[in-house]
Amino acid sequence: MATADKVDAVEEITEKLRNSNAAVVTAYTGLSVAQLKQLRRSLGENAQYRVVKNTLTKIAAKEAGFSELDEHLKGSTAVAFVTGDPVEAAKGLRDFAKDNPALVIKGGVLDGKALSADEIKKLADLESREVLLAKLAGAMKGKQSQAAALFQALPSKFVRTAEALRAKKAEQGGAE
Length: 176
Description:
One of its GO terms (molecular function) is large ribosomal subunit rRNA binding. By secondary structure, the chain is an alpha+beta fold. It is built from 6 helices and 5 strands, in the order αβαβαβαββαα. α1 (4-19) packs across α3 and α4 crosses α5 (117-125).
């Protein structure tokens, strides 16, 4: 029989899954409370790291439409609910796992698509959204300046050619 606390917990996890851009499932066995606190800080402001009960999370994931999380909900489980840049959170988890091998990234979801642990690590290797946008803007600005130089070059080349022809005609006309 479901208790009110369990129903509330399922509703809370369901809401967090629905409001998150991404969710990363991890195993945390062997981490101290101080290490978990450090991990929460390393994830940034746009991610919330919560220790969850597997059974309740399976129910919540099913209600939220993320049944692909079921395979990762075994053993000690904690979930990073990411509401901001998923790359930043993935980097925080990856970097923390390098220093603390007890943290194991199991998998997750990103915008409704299931991700394996390897895919999350690849996501962490990406540059942040802001850096990618800055590079895109720089590339677009570069292309625009190249186009402007090309459009400016055509009339000036025409003027130089016309001036050269005028000078040649004047030279030929003056010699005869």
